[in-house]
Amino acid sequence: LSSSIENHRTLGSRTIYVGHRPCPANEVFIPPKFCDNRIVSSKYTVWNFLPKNLFEQFRRIANFYFLIIFLVQVIVDTPTSPVTSGLPLFFVITVTAIKQGYEDWLRHKADNEVNKYRVTVLEDGRRIQKESEKIKVGDVLEVEEDETFPCDLILLQSSRDDGTCFVTTASLDGESNHKTHYTVPDTERDVESLNATIECEQPQPDLYKSLGPENLLLKGATLKNTQSICGKSIIAFFTGTILKMGKTILSKALVCTTLKYVWQSKPGQDEPWYNEKTLKEKETNLYLNMFTDFLSFMVLFNFIIPVSMYVTVEMQKFLGSFFISWDKDFFDSEIEEGALVNTSDLNEELGQVEYVFTDKTGTLTQNNMEFIECCIDGHQYKYRDASSEVDGFCVTDGPMNTVQQKAGREREELFLRALCLCHTVQVKEGFIASSPDEIALVQGAMRYGFTFLGLESKTMKILNRTNDVEMYELLHVLNFDPVRRRMSVIVRSISGETLLFCKGADSSIFPRVKQEEVEKIRMHVERNATDGYRTLCVAYKHLTAEEYDQVDSGLREARLALQDREEKLMAVYNQVETGMNLIGATAVEDRLQEEAAETMEALQGAGIKVWVLTGDKMETAKSTCYACRLFKRNTELLELTVRTLESPGKRREDRLHDLLLEYHKKTVQDAPPAKTRVASQDYGFIVDGATLSMVLNSSSENNLHDYKDLFLQICQNCTSVLCCRMAPLQKAQIVKMVKNSKGSPITLSIGDGANDVSMILEAHVGIGIKGKEGRQAVRNSDYAIPKLKHLKKLLLGHGHLYYVRIAHLVQYFFYKNLCFILPQFLYQFFCGCSQQPLYDAAYLTMYNICFTSMPILAYSLFEQHISIEMLLENATLYRQIGKNAMLRWGPFLYWTLLGVFHGLVFFFGVWFLFSNPALQDNGQAFGNWSYGTIVFTILVFTVTLKLALDTRHWTWINHFVIWGSLAFYVFFSFFWGGVIWPFLRQQRLYFVFANMLSSVSAWLVIIVLILLSLLPEILYVVLRKPRGPYARQKLVQSSAGGIQSPRSSARPLLMRTFSDESNTVS
Amino acid sequence: MMASSYNAKEEDGHHSGASSGTGLSKNKKPDNTAFKQQRLPAWQPILTAGSVLPAFFVIGLIFIPIGIGLYVTSNNIKEFEIDYTGVSSDSPCYNCAKNFTWNTTEPCVCTVNFTLLQPFESNVFMYYGLSNFYQNHRRYVKSRDDRQLNGDLSALTDPSKECEPYRKSGDVSIAPCGAIANSLFNDTLVLYYVDSNNSKIEVPLVKKGIAWWTDKHVKFRNPAGNSNLTLAFRDTAKPVNWAKPVYELDPSDPDNNGFINEDFIVWMRTAALPTFRKLYRIIQKKSGTTPTLPNGNYMLNITYNYPVLSFDGRKRMILSTISWMGGKNPFLGIAYITVGSICFFLGVVLLIIHHKYDNRNTSADIPS
Hints:
Chain A is an alpha+beta fold. In chain A, about 45% of the residues lie in helices and about 15% in strands. Classes of the chains: A alpha+beta, B alpha+beta.
């Protein structure tokens, strides 16, 4: 049980009164104004939903545009009725409102769950149950085991004797281990009558620093839900298309208006005797007339941007995303869950990813440490059996069964005791520790016969090889910190010996031990590091009674210091951790995720650049990169870290400058042209957090603002980039920098912990892994998958297909409306530019909604131009659609030309036919509505058959909707023209369709024009070799040629010498 | 199915803040159905030169004969066209055209002589053609009231606003209202055959069967409730430019009078293009072998009521025979021959490609 005080994280330094009892010493009590503890991630309330939602919706340029068109139709006398655009708009707005309302309702539900969470508050000595949202700043809370902190807390009292508590911060920083927190000293008194104030500093965005105060408990960070952002490439294309189409409409309307007035200026044309204007029209101002004419034309041509395109795209995205959550390949039997789609707006972005930013711990690796081997006095002890590896010093075999070539028994036991004692592990149904490495070490010692039994009232118990219990009094723990990169314990054995055991990174241990021991161990450490293991060195020291007394008093003094406590402690630590004896080193493996290497290889094969962003140390991260095959044997590593910047006689800034220029020259300037890139040198780039901030914050100095550019260019020319020692915000910075770089590439972030949330939110596509480390990443992601290996199918399979589908959808929509409206435009030249619609209003309205929408929707949901297996097998296929390949100028031009060609064929084909409108065998003639109906029939059939030609994957659904749509069109036309509709003012289409079908000429012209329209398409398909077979054929060759990289062993053999810096406990 | 799955998904996504993540989710394994796994059985057509080739040849071989057939058919249709607008001073109708006024009681009649070089067999159809007449102008097209024309009594006395400015004459509503009705083509054409004796024989012109059957019998109806058309239309005024009211369009035949007058119905079907023709009369073929219109001299007697010069229009009279494909129009034949030839040509090109790159194509045919 731990009692605590709330400390709300608000901006600015504040004074908080514990338990709302102001200190009597305070002169003036100003009731502090803090916001309440409520979490609001929902957007609407019942009252503001309608206005706010409508406002939001009409802020979208497309909706606003359609609203304007609708209003124009209402106000101005236009050729089509307001219903034609009002109805679809109403439909779209309603559907979107319902969808958003539902999503917001879910958010309300989730918020309530958190806000109504019951907490126990100590108020005037009584325990009161309160809802989480009603917690006020200054309340004293009681939190039981396994409860989540409902807010930020300060630990005042704990049920544990030593005034500590263990906290997992999995949901905050992604580390699933237990962290020890201490009560505020001198609060042993009864908390119920405590009078205290807290001066709290300004909250820091840097999570690592904020975690520093060890008695501050941070609330489980609940980050706001991701604002749904729409797919970038599609939106860009949408906007681009709309602008282009907008221009087309404007220019068409302008042309027509001008022509109209030119035509009218001829005497007798504007107002022939048979067609006089109404009185009102005559009286209106000429310019006003021009303006309304212009608007009318716009309304007539606005069908080229149909509202229904948005509906269809939204539907495609929404329905299409189900295939991700339905995919059984994403199902993980361990956590019993499949993939999760939080937003459906980004499906196609999955096919466009150029950069993948991945977290290391928990994403690439399992964060599951395993003790691999150790080295005692230069002798290697490998736990695994059957290894014949030859090392410079000893032959490896089973554990400790031979005396020969082994360290002395005494040294062995000393080493194992050190492992058993030098840690902060707690025993509680297994081991609990703040670092998984420590557990691995304790477990490793257990394998060799030394079992740590636990810590009881400052006494550590060890079960040794002879099954005796050894007792050690724990005198001091010299905690690990990232600056010292080591930790120590001071213990006293039964015999009264005072010992200091220390373990830490080689770089921090080696200078502090007797030098003659170092060389024997260094070799092992370096070899282990190259193999991708995390290594630690272990040392010990005897302390005499005087020495100990000195240390003891020093430590006590420092701990009680009110100022510069940290510095003082550090000084004592450094003083005592000198002159130690090196005993040995350990190697711990951080296991890779399932198929991590294969996945990374596939991503690289797909032309995606993988960046590893980790808070871990460089060596550890580097070894993981090697293990994941991100760095290969022939990869040349460029390092830009604190270490490489340290060079004698030079300022770090200058060194940074030199290095950047050198690397830039190497990667960018000397790089061979893109065509021959295949055979060129692979570069890997390593940068650390400190250097990165130097690069990013260098703008204050002169001529340094282009560092960022240089840096970015280097990065972009490297196959893999490793960024280590990153704070979560730096991760986001990196993502942002790449995202905003030239060409604005699509970025994807993948991570599993809360420390990845910032980069998940920053990237275009955020992927959360449903790992062990809480749900923050999953909640803030766009897609969540159970395992890293699923990323491959998500991108290469689903992403590829979605992109192809939606790109085709958008372009097809554009095309079919172009050839829909072009005849309409051309008709203006033959009707005195009078805005006379060519098609009946029913056809205008239904074209996009009913006649041609379902086939393309089915296509965009089910098309597999290349089978998923093929896509997964051949990662290179992903490159074909890279850089928005299907929505670039080339394909756009193709679709435009096709649309124009079809429009011309439809209109003029029928125009030639109508040079003699007597088309029936009884001599009767056809009128304008027959003309429109024939054009429309050809149009519907052609665009549908064009889609049929594009379809590579005909499921029964495709058959059903394609043939069904055509049948529906015919049926509808008969029906529509077969009845005198009482609600219609004009029975324009009465029996027009039936009469058309009774004319042989109409049949013949429909057939020949459809065929003529499709001819180029058929030819194109045949000659181009459609993606499917051609790609397939190419692949057959390529796989035969063995371009695919061979499956090398997961651990590459490296002859690279690592630097003196090595791995430490994190 | 979809909805339930969506719910499950959302529940999962909006997990409460607690970090104890797993547990609650049960039986979330996605269904292993072909649909959900995107494994529906599918037909994957692959268009290659090999498979398209025969199609091209077949299309070519079908289209070219059809085209030739169409072309020949169209060529066999006899058509005679004469412009009687009266633009030039030597034209017989020059005076009528020039001196046209609306309020004249004396109709101007002119006669145009012409010669048919070939006899017209079978039924001959007489059309009038207008040029530069924008029957498809939006203001014009909408200026009608189909309710009124369908015999709706309320619309008869209160026509639609669309009919403006041809909606009311003074306070009395116009029947039929609107610009289309108002501008009804009212030239009267009478055809005489001048035989070798120089005597005029009037060619019998049938004025029924020129409008769509559905228009005549369903879409257009005289006002109900009164068999006497004069009474039925008594509260209405005649269109401004008409010489006589609607119930006197064809007093001789009650089945062809009022709104269901076929000339009127034909006019009300607005033309698609500014140059158009409309069926005027049918000359029934005679029994026996005598041609309907033997070759020789003819006289067209025109009662010139319809002014077109004010908007630079033209008027024509067209005599035409009809085939199964309608009137004379070489376009279809040419189109079919062209498309057929293109297909055939492409077939040949593809054949060459197919042979040249044979290996490539066969390897491309490997199914997935």
